[in-house]
Structures
1.
Amino acid sequence: MMLFDGGRAPNPRRVRVFLAEKGIEVPMTSVDMGAMGHKAEAVASRNPLRRLPVLELDDGTILTESIAICRYFEELHPEPALFGRGALGRALVEMWQRRIEFNLFQPVSFAFRHIHPAMKEWEVPQVPEWGEANKPKVIDFLALLDKEFSSREFAAGDAFSIADITGLIAVDFMKPARIVVPEEFANVLRWYRSIAARPSAAA
Amino acid sequence: MMLFDGGRAPNPRRVRVFLAEKGIEVPMTSVDMGAMGHKAEAVASRNPLRRLPVLELDDGTILTESIAICRYFEELHPEPALFGRGALGRALVEMWQRRIEFNLFQPVSFAFRHIHPAMKEWEVPQVPEWGEANKPKVIDFLALLDKEFSSREFAAGDAFSIADITGLIAVDFMKPARIVVPEEFANVLRWYRSIAARPSAAA
């Protein structure tokens, strides 16, 4: 198999952090997204949406969408379980993965893509008003998360999961989006520092 | 258990269609979203995000996010499998569920929420320019889907899945969003008519 990777972009990183947590090594081809490599033939012929990451299996089957790629590896290598354990555990991981994706990662991405000058060619048209509208959504959701983290260690319960990985890439993406976690959210900061200190975060 | 349902809104409907496909009956409480019932205490005390659907289990555990609720029922009642079969099958369903969610359902929702006058209190601030920017995204993705459906019957392969349910609610949501499937997308229209004709679509 071959994983077409996109460097610093958050979705490719989500898969690399996941693989590092699992201890799985996968052959990788680095695509230079800064040079728009994801729009070139090597990616476009495999993913008509021209996005990364892309996993190509040995029989030519293509998997895209970072979470779908992670779920495939979860099925092949169930331990450590990063999508939860048992019916309810897996549902709770799904819930928190989606809550964090839609209420933190996406608003951060919209703020970055619709405001940052470097994104002019990437997000057409940029709608700065929409970017700005997303910044308070980020803060509102961090307030909710801060209450949640007052009573547990990880996003979906007592075990680290894919929901924490989505949280990690979202908070790290706040830097280029120029949004800061308010110091008053002490529980969020404790959680973030603990997951950012895991070896996988360097992936 | 109790499912707090939101009537015509697409996410509550996604769960009802799923349950109908599974043949599962769940006690339901109808919440009048038109009267902002999802902002009232019965929902807000269970879901701080004040959205529907919400599933409350007998022990008081709360599950939100339509896909998380569906996944919970998939675990309890595996047949018919609506999240795919086998490692690769499940990954492909995840891929298509996400592709359709992010590239069809979400752009349709943004077009509706940011343009429709009835959504002024729901989406604050409305950014009409962002709503308009999403309309061509919908058409572009339908063009991609039309090619896909030239060689297979359902979104994620030869079996009906949650990805088709997300597609159904997305296409039906195009009506209030005032976006029409172009007649030239004959494969999309054939697929849509076949899933809209299933008894579950009336849920």
2.
Amino acid sequence: MLPIFLRSVHTRRILWRMRQSQLFTKTRREAPSDEFAKNAQLLIRAGYIHKELAGVYDFLPLGLRVLDKVIGIIREEMNAIGGEEVLLSTLQNPDVWKKSGRWDDASVDVWFKTHLKNGGELGLGNTHEEALTALMTEHIASYKDLPRYVYQFQNKFRNETRAKSGVMRAREFIMKDLYSFSRDAAQHTEFYEKAASAYEKIFSRVGIGDKTYRTFASGGSFSKYSHEYQTVCEAGEDTIYIDEAKRLAVNKEVYDDQGVYAAIGIDKSGLKEAKAIEVGNIFTLGTRFSETLGLSYKDAEGKSTPVFMGSYGIGPGRLVGTVVELMADGKGLVWPESVAPFSYHLVSLGRDGDEISKTADVLYDDLIKANVDVLYDDRDARAGEKFAESDLLGIPKRIVVGKDTTAGEFEVVNRATGTVAKKSREEILAPARGGSASGGK
Amino acid sequence: MLPIFLRSVHTRRILWRMRQSQLFTKTRREAPSDEFAKNAQLLIRAGYIHKELAGVYDFLPLGLRVLDKVIGIIREEMNAIGGEEVLLSTLQNPDVWKKSGRWDDASVDVWFKTHLKNGGELGLGNTHEEALTALMTEHIASYKDLPRYVYQFQNKFRNETRAKSGVMRAREFIMKDLYSFSRDAAQHTEFYEKAASAYEKIFSRVGIGDKTYRTFASGGSFSKYSHEYQTVCEAGEDTIYIDEAKRLAVNKEVYDDQGVYAAIGIDKSGLKEAKAIEVGNIFTLGTRFSETLGLSYKDAEGKSTPVFMGSYGIGPGRLVGTVVELMADGKGLVWPESVAPFSYHLVSLGRDGDEISKTADVLYDDLIKANVDVLYDDRDARAGEKFAESDLLGIPKRIVVGKDTTAGEFEVVNRATGTVAKKSREEILAPARGGSASGGK
């Protein structure tokens, strides 16, 4: 039975509206010449992110807004399956990693390490199994304390030698990592499937559900198989083999393992090969960490038993990059409503104080009153320049206020399809709510 | 004129309710023997935080909830004065720090540094003047682009040799740092005073306003004076000298500088010495960073002019520690409503399924329906143990449901004062909303 404890709704309904004349970021025509990934090139050009160095990016207001919306969606789904949120430290104590055998660069090749002034080496967290397992020994003693599901959104640091995929493979990135603590394999499996469903909801809510496949992968040293969520995309670093009818895939690691096909009931012949982006993964860890770090519980008979664990990761930044790779077009970014920085881009073609500007000002105020997220391009600039910039920013709906606009009817351009619709003031103000954390495309 | 651009309300009205039987953290009788600070001792005992190593703490669900509420208050006040939120990277490119002359350990003695696998040293951000100033060169060109106010909540890493003040002086901690970019000293000063007012609102909203003084400090290499916000508390690491009538103070650095008394119009004799915690600081940076990093703008006459900067810091974790130091009592934590993890602690003295439990269950459901943040102690445990634990957790109002409780009237205990009031169901459900981000004590 899933605990019903956390009816937490971490409501991140963010009301945001802004005059573009005051947005500090500017768009640019060219990305830096050392940036090769389409996602980062576009996000930089549109002023969503800034590149500090290869694989290290800053999130600027529009980019942070998208990242926050993705995080909000993931948080809701983690809370819905009973997750309790924490925030563990970046700085890692070597002691626990030595116990698990993962402190050496020979076993983990992406460590960043540093030194305390008063002696001793520290690591920067590349994952948090060790720290959390050690922590949980203080909070789990009895079978009554299980199951538990603990997650965080925390920076991970990975010393990648290749960092050429923009925000999709960064050296520093926020990861949602959830860890499950169960009595045994049966209790674990029940949650594992719930987590899998939650992941599918997340991918669907950010708009990539139809291209994302549950993919069988090697379980590594932990279990026979693990699962990746792979989104079909030419920019992907991975190759997967898809059974379209069953909406399942296998990755390259297990493609030649005949056992996998029997295990999941698909036929190797007829699989379709595709490039894909790994947007999430779920792992059965079993007792790998609980045994080495001493996390056990007393069962109903008083017998000490190692806790059965799982881990579940999604990188919100990688999801942002994936959405860009899949949806952007020749003109720039294209955001689904659920993660767009704003719902509307209100573009005024007026000049300071003229009738057009006044009409746009009134509509802007009305949109604010109706709780619609809106970016208002109130700047003095040429129409062509404004439209090109609006296309680059990728906000789902554009309302243009020009000399032919009457106060009662507006032209609304759909960024994704390019279709233009005439809408009355009432139509624009009435149904445009929601969006932020309410899901859907 | 302050830009009115960001009417952003990053609404973090979080609805939270939880059954204590499912909260994964447990309280403990003793803090770790190597923990000397009262704030960390109590927060660890109550299960709000976990100590990884000296000066490095994890935030557990209750602690993260408090931290989030403090962050929410700061964010609202930063947005209200025109702040635009970003998220800069932890990993720092040495190039910009070399330009400003702050890469060497001789100039900054708290650096943590690390290495890229494929060559080159990186720093972990201890502050972000360099990175942001360099970034802003891409977004500021003309006087029309000024002023700008950019802030973040981001981890800072400081390689402290002494880390004995719990969450008040951590080696890794979240800081809100805002940087202002103005045309000149006059435009800067106008914002500086607005930021000072915002800071005073923040301290008042988290419940420490009456003990917090605007304190004159050395301006370092940047300007004649800077300002600290110092909260009078025996646990403080600083000493300040207070003019109570004027609600101003000076710190130790400038106490013997006669110029400061003339500058601020207070009399050195009659100042009251006190230990204090620095909860915030605001600095005039002038052109120190814009000149070394090439951040200039063209004024109305087309002349290139360095941008005039300021910086404004608050550590949310230190604020949490300060609230603990000031308000906790012999029985445990005491939270003001504005930052409490929950408004109500509903304590049932029933046993699984009895009439008392049923009465408590119904009230819990009603509180949820009324959008009241509530932790529900639904566990089978002795009343004395439950009360002691409730005191330790420090939730502002406790409702006890016991054998004498009727369904229409409840006993509400005020954690801070210990007073007990009889309240009807309607009184409990009606006015108890708000709290989260609405300020006040």
